[in-house]
Structure formats: structure tokens, C-alpha cells
């Protein structure tokens, strides 16, 4: 949806993020964004990928956790957050699958990282996309969630997905981190410099 995308187009090969802010006027009066939470841009995808792939050994900012990152940027969210159909399309496209209106990529993702979640059972069409990605050789990793309670959020609760909870510098669960059956591993999530 071009309104939600906020970049003047729908699905395309440009993953640049113009921001996902929602104004009070949009939340009150825009048919597509009606009722969306009013917020400044989160830059969430930029922050999470910077933790993994920030350039290293250059005396600028922080270092990512990889020395030679090779990142395929896939922007599935926009104003009012991502919708399920875009999440599914993003997983399919990143793993080398076909998505109408977007050119197929030659170098598919080996790891698909999903930093989002919704408290519901894993939808069948999402599970199918995850199965396709795994069959193509991708590992699918997702946030266990930020509810601060025991939770089962998709995509972390989908079969074959590695759900990641967050820890603090003492190795204890971060106060915001979800836990439960959808949490397979835990990794640092509090006090991360970006």
C-alpha cells in the first residue's frame, strides 16, 4: 500500500526507509492509517541491522557483530507497522522466491532475521513461507517479543523458527523480553550501542 509504504510506491526493489511516523491527523482522518498509534519514526530495522552489520575497524561509531557483513535489506513495514502479506512476501523474496512486482534476487539470504511479533498462533500462510525459506536453505530467526511476560508471538512461534529472547549485561532476562515456548535462545538485548 503506497500510503503505508511512505516512499511513493508499493512493492519495489528500493529498501530505503523514509520513516514510519504517524501524525494525529493521519490517525484521525486517513482511511488507511485510521486508528494507528501516533508516533515518531522508530528506525527499528536500521537499528537492528546496525547491531549486526555496522562497518568495523574504521574508527567510526560502533562495530557490528560480523567482520564482513553481506546484508540484503528487505523493508516490509511502514506507517502503522507491517502487514502479514508483506511479511510473507518479504520472507519469500529474501529466500529467492518469486513475488509479483519485484525482481527475483540472485543471492538469496542464508539467515532471515525478523524483529517483530504479534500475539497469535502462527498463520498457515506465514508457516508456508517459512517452510519455503527453510527448504531453500535459509535459517529463520525471530524476536521472542517485548511484552515482558510469557508470550507466544508469531513468527517466533512458527515451526522451524529460532525465537530469541533478550538478556542484560549480567546474563539475566531483560525486563522487556518475552519468554516461554517461543524462546529458543537468549542474546544480549539491553545496553546495545548503535
Q: What is the topology?
A:
Layout: H1 2-5, H2 24-29, H3 44-53, H4 84-94, E1 111-114, E2 118-119, H5 124-135, E3 139-143, E4 153-154, E5 161-167, E6 185-188
Parallel strand pairs: 1-3, 3-5, 5-6
Antiparallel strand pairs: 2-4
Helix pairs in contact: 4-5
Q: What is the helix fraction of residues, given as a range?
A: 10-25%
Low-confidence stretches: none
Largest sheet: 4 strands, parallel
- Binned strand content: 5-15%
Quaternary structure of the protein: single chain
Distance between the termini: 30 Å
- SSE series: HHHHEEHEEEE
Mean pLDDT rating: 90
C-alpha-based Rg, rounded: 17 Å
Structural class: alpha/beta
Shape: globular
Continuous helix count: 5
* Spatial order of the strands forming the largest sheet: 1-3-5-6
The total count of strands amounts to 6
What can be said about this structure in brief?
The protein is α/β, with parallel strands linked by helices and 194 residues long. Helices cover 22% and strands 12% of the residues. α4 packs parallel to α5.
Describe the 3D structure:
Helix content is 22%, strand content 12%. It has helices at 2-5, 24-29, 44-53, 84-94, 124-135; strands at residues 111-114, 118-119, 139-143, 153-154, 161-167, 185-188. Strands 1-3-5-6 form a 4-stranded parallel β-sheet. It has a two-stranded antiparallel ribbon with strand order 2-4. The mean pLDDT is 90.
Amino acid at each position: 500500500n503506497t500510503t503505508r509504504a511512505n516512499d511513493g510506491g508499493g512493492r519495489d526493489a528500493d529498501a530505503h526507509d523514509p520513516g514510519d511516523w504517524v501524525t494525529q491527523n493521519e490517525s484521525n482522518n486517513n482511511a488507511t492509517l485510521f486508528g494507528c498509534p501516533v508516533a515518531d519514526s522508530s528506525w527499528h530495522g536500521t537499528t537492528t541491522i546496525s547491531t549486526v552489520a555496522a562497518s568495523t575497524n574504521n574508527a567510526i561509531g560502533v562495530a557490528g557483530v560480523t567482520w564482513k557483513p553481506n546484508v540484503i535489506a528487505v523493508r516490509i513495514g511502514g506507517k502503522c507497522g507491517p502487514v502479514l502479506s508483506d511479511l510473507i512476501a518479504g520472507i519469500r523474496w529474501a529466500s529467492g522466491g518469486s513475488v509479483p512486482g519485484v525482481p527475483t534476487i540472485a543471492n538469496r539470504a542464508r539467515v532471515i532475521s525478523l524483529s517483530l511479533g504479534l500475539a497469535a498462533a502462527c498463520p498457515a500462510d506465514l508457516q508456508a513461507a517459512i517452510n519455503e525459506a527453510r527448504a531453500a536453505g535459509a535459517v529463520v530467526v525471530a524476536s521472542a517479543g517485548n511484552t515482558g511476560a510469557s508470550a507466544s508471538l508469531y513468527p517466533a512461534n512458527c515451526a522451524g523458527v529460532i525465537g530469541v529472547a533478550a538478556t542484560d549485561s549480567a546474563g539475566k532476562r531483560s525486563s522487556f523480553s518475552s519468554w516461554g515456548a517461543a524462546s529458543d535462545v537468549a542474546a544480549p538485548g539491553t545496553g546495545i550501542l548503535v
